[in-house]
Amino acid sequence: MSELSTTLAAVPQAWFATPIGAIGLTLAAYFLGVRLFKLMRHPSWCPPVIIAALLIAAVIALLPIGIDDYNRGAAWLMLLLGPATVALAVPLYQQLGQIRALWKPIVLTLPLSATLAACYAVLIAWLLGAPPEVLASLAPKSVTSPIALSLTQELGGSTALLMGALMTTGITAIFGVEWLSRWMHIRDPRLIGLALGINGHALGTVRAFEISHQAGAFASLGMSLTGAFTAIVLPLVWHLWA
Fold this sequence. Notes:
The protein has about 240 residues and is mainly alpha-helical. The protein has 13 helices and no strands.
């Protein structure tokens, strides 16, 4: 029995020795998350990505594998984040006329919005006595993952803490933007999409595409501009402040 138990315990480790295991687990968790999301009648507070992340965490906790084993294989999927972000240029091009008509309000509001998105979490953590590593992990929480990961490494933060902050920010932004838009009677998909993209990065953008194609395009714009602005300004401000 001991030899059989040892053999069975070695199966998951052998499966995750190649990227196929991590990629297969990720895809299976995502499709199951989409299915559960539909069964729960599309709750805005629990998007499929969150469900998939919880499922993956449960599998890793139950199987005799570590998070490093999963990350080695899932690193191949991380390579697709860049091209996926660049692909958002397609809906932006399709809404180019609308974007040109609103370029002045966008230029005036986006720097302030991106700055507030980075500052309020850092300020709260600083007032609570958080160390510099935590502050560096929270500062890029409102930008898309490829940019946020690079910024966190440059600032000396924790990748694990950043990923948690990204998830929390995306869910909170979706819930907050939709609640405020209903409360303030804002129905313009351009405004709702831009707010979701600025504050909710990729999760907010996915939610915006569920609202309408136009909302998704403006969310892509907000996410892209916020990422570019933060990538340029945040390291300069951080090193001056630190």
